[in-house]
Amino acid sequence: MQNILFPTDFSDNSDQAYPYALDIAYLLGATLTIFNSYKLPYSKSNLLVSMIDRMKEDSEKELNDLRDSALSQDKYKNLSISITSRSGNFVSQIPKVAGEFNSDLIVMGTKGASSLKEMFIGSNTLEVIQITKIPVLTVPEKAQNRKVNKIAMAVDLKKITDPKQLSPLLEMAKICRASIEFVHVMHPDDNDSTQDRFNQIMFLEKFASEIPSNINIITESDVIDGLSRYVETEKPDMLAMLSRKHTLFERLFTQSITNKLSFRSEIPLLIMDE
Prior knowledge:
By secondary structure, the chain is an alpha/beta fold. It has helices spanning about 10-30, 45-70, 90-100, 115-120, 125-130, 165-175, 195-205, 225-235, 250, 255-260; strands spanning about 5, 30-40, 80-85, 105-110, 135-140, 150-155, 180-185, 215-220, 240, 270.
């Protein structure tokens, strides 16, 4: 990962995520791009042009302040930080800006909540996850511990189409010197092929051969209950998952299921597209 994108609306949620973006860029030796957008409702007024100019000016000032505040710290003084301000919808601009700057990771803040449903439904973050294929690291507003020692990766032990999609997980573990805990929740009546499951376990072990890792298989009739129990009990510092269709990620955002899911709201979540 050489380019990190940090979209900000200058809210408290974004402010909380900013140090995470800085730390990741610092550890990777990557370029950090800070992005903000501004938008006015349609109007025929002649004042519109001057208002847009003023909003652009204010946006760029805030972005420069963020960059200067980071570069004034000894730790980040040599960090490569660029800024960009655009006119238009904040969410729809993010994939465009990410593509323009060849971003490998998007770091965003999310409002704290007691469940993933409350954290994402109707939020900018969920929209971004849905419209981009770039990995997204979401940071809840109550996130406090930037030291990541253990990353839990939720897996369904189905064949992964392109192993490269898991590369951000491996890089994150390496730069944080963290272990990876693969977590699979198995239904008591699961009839999936034992051989297929074994093959996927072997794949994961080989994939993470350079990183301390474990495979955790939990028997639970409800996959969400099992994953929630694991997170609450083992307290990983970050949760990761693939956002492929018709699997775990999709189920997490099905209203009938997510209302049962409660994670500690200070855990960052790494979403990788497949």
